[in-house]
Amino acid sequence: MNGTLHWLQRGHTVPSGGALRPAENTEQEEALLYEDEFELTFHVGDEEPAQEPLAAPAARPAAPAAPAVPAVEEPTRIVTLEKPAAPVVEQPTRVVPLAEPAAPEPTMPEPPQQPAAPAAARRVLISGGDRGIGAAAARAFAAAGYQVAVLYHQNAAAAAALEQQLPGCIAIQCDVASRASCELAFRAVEQAMGRVDVLVCNAGIAQQKLFTDITPEEWQRMLDVNLSGAFHLCQLALPGMIRRKQGRILTVSSMWGQTGGSCEVAYSAAKAGLIGLGRALAKEEGPSGVTVNIVAPGVIDTDMMASFTDEDRAALAEETPVERLGTVEDVARSIVFLCDEAAGYITGQVIGVNGGLVI
């Protein structure tokens, strides 16, 4: 390879041998090597080995690679970060909280036992509870674990006998036709029992008479006892039921309230009124958790049939598909069922307890 070294400022030349001849002033030439600019011009020929002497200056730029050595140590930092993560995962403290929930598990079976207590502590008020269907309902409710209170009008002896028969039963005198009497009686019941969860409007009177012979006073008395009495008691019981978001109301109507009975126009009208009251009230109070239903008994063997002869009784039984008269216990069982918590989805219904006489 042939090449010449041209000094840009001094104009010196390096022969093709590649060796720089020393100048007369060596110190001056050394200074020129660092201070003066120079240009190398090579004529490349067939001889390639002449490039080897230039390898020496190429090694100098490799020197700045030395600072890259500390960069190799950076991965070691990642290793130290992974090591402390291992003890965090191995912490066995998570086993302790798993043992804590196991303690409440024995107490979980207790709630299923508590529904029996509220059911046993429910309080029922029955108007006309001293005789007939009312007294049978009082006995059925007591057998089901209810605390029972009954209202009676005049038969104090029968009411006292019921108190003796049913431990915890409370009998209070009341004329359901009078609002003031109902208010006094209801207040006494609340003071004795604390509240009324179930109301059974059973008080009623009957009369067989031609419509043209009914006096205005008789008509009004029929409505006051059979219909207005239920109105008074429902108005007194509902505020507490609505406040507690729970309650049962049941009115005792009659099959004559559904079909009408000859010579019992006033009675049929009042009992039909109970059906209308119950159905409308069920729609109004359903959102408050209160159900209202109606029982419509058929021919039930009570003291109201005292005027019927044996032939009349036999004829009525023959007309009934089940071929017998109903009993007060038949009606009482239906009343207790409709007032139970199990009947919470039944409201506004008329349940005919009539042996199929009215279908």
Provide tags for this entry.
globular, alpha/beta, 7-stranded parallel sheet, 3-stranded antiparallel sheet, 359 residues, 46% helix, disordered N terminus
Can you tell me about this structure?
It contains 15 helices and ten strands. 30% of the residues are buried. α8 crosses α15 and α11 runs parallel beside α13. The N terminus is likely disordered. With 359 residues, it is α/β, with parallel strands linked by helices. Strands 6-5-4-7-8-9-10 form a seven-stranded parallel sheet, with helices on both faces. Strands 2-1-3 form a three-stranded antiparallel sheet, with no helix packed on it. It is 46% helix and 14% strand.
Structure summary:
This protein is α/β, with parallel strands linked by helices and 359 residues long. It is built from 15 helices and ten strands. The longest helix is centred in the middle third of the chain and has 29 residues, at 216-244.
